[in-house]
């Protein structure tokens, strides 16, 4: 998916796609984003590093609002951190972990699978996970009193909640992209058939 959308960034426009799938034209890619909500554009532009800081900030605000809504729905209260600071910190930590992977998973070597089964160590992502301590340090840098156990117990659910939102965004983008790609392939086949008929 990223190989396709990377063409929207001038620095990566010459990227070659792996496999036999055709590269969609920039107009098609913009069309895919136009069909979806704004946060899909923020996600993809942050991924391909097109005005990354700006798009990350917009995505952060959007997801922070969803976290606040989920906290209210669940009646969540934190004894150590104000609710707004909690939502800000957990969103910051989860987004950082998602957009800045630590490298390949050592168990599956970045494939996400081992012996035709989903890698249990990285949960099929192929990347090394940040631990709770690192997430506390990144999400709540000025709070020395917060521990990894606190993050696991208090933030663990919301960390997974944010990750599921990001996976849903990526899945929706991929689905729309596949539809446009299939249309492009069908159009090329039709175009080839017409050219072939003209030769007769």
What does this molecule look like?
- The protein is mostly helical.
- The protein has one domain (2-199).
- The protein contains seven helices and two strands; from the N terminus they run H-H-H-H-H-E-E-H-H.
- It has helices spanning 2-5, 26-35, 38-47, 52-74, 83-99, 132-139, 148-199; strands at 113-114, 117-118.
- Strands 1-2 form a two-stranded antiparallel sheet.
- Helix 5 (83-99) packs across helix 7 (148-199).
- The radius of gyration is 21 Å and the shape is globular.
- The two termini are 39 Å apart.
- The model has no long low-confidence stretch (mean pLDDT 79).
Question: In a nutshell, what does this entry contain?
Answer:
This protein is mainly alpha-helical and 200 residues long. The chain has helices spanning 2-5, 26-35, 38-47, 52-74, 83-99, 132-139, 148-199; strands at 113-114, 117-118.
Write the layout of secondary structure elements.
Elements: H1 2-5, H2 26-35, H3 38-47, H4 52-74, H5 83-99, E1 113-114, E2 117-118, H6 132-139, H7 148-199
Helix pairs in contact: 2-7, 3-4, 3-7, 4-5, 4-7, 5-6, 5-7, 6-7
């Amino acid at each position: 998916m990223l190989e396709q959308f990377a063409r929207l960034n001038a620095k990566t426009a010459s990227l070659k796609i792996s496999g036999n799938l055709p590269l969609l034209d920039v107009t098609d890619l913009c069309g895919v984003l136009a069909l979806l909500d704004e946060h899909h554009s923020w996600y993809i532009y942050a991924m391909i590093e097109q005005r990354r800081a700006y798009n990350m900030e917009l995505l952060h605000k959007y997801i922070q609002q969803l976290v606040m809504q989920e906290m209210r729905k669940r009646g969540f209260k934190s004894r150590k951190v104000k609710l707004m600071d909690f939502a800000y910190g957990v969103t910051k930590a989860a987004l950082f972990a998602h957009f800045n992977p630590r490298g390949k998973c050592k168990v599956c070597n970045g494939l996400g699978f081992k012996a035709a089964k989903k890698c249990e160590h990285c949960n099929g992502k192929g990347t090394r996970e940040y631990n709770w301590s690192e997430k506390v340090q990144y999400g709540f840098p000025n709070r020395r009193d917060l521990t990894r156990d606190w993050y696991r117990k208090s933030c663990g659910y919301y960390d997974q909640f944010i990750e599921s939102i990001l996976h849903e965004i990526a899945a929706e983008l991929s689905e729309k992209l596949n539809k446009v790609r299939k249309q492009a392939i069908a159009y090329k086949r039709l175009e080839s058939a017409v050219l072939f008929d003209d030769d007769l």
